[in-house]
Amino acid sequence: MQRKGSNTMLSTMVFRTRISSLLISMFAIFASFYVAGRLWQDSENRVYLIKELDRITGLGQSAISVDDTLKIIACREQHKRLSALEMGLAAAKQEGFTLKRSADTNGADSKRRPLVVIGVLTRFGRQHNRDAIRKAWMGSGATLKKMENEKGIVSRFVIGRSANRGDSLDRSIDNENRQTNDFIILDQVEAPGELPKKAKMFFALAAETWDAEFYAKLNDDVYVNIDALGATLTSHLDKPRVYIGCMKSGEVFSEPGHKWYEPDWWKFGDKKSYFRHASGEMYVISRALAKFISINRSLLRTYAHDDVSAGSWFLGLDVKHIDEAKFCCSSWST
Question: What InterPro entries does the record tag this protein with (predicted)?
Answer without folding.
Answer: Glyco_trans_31 (IPR002659)
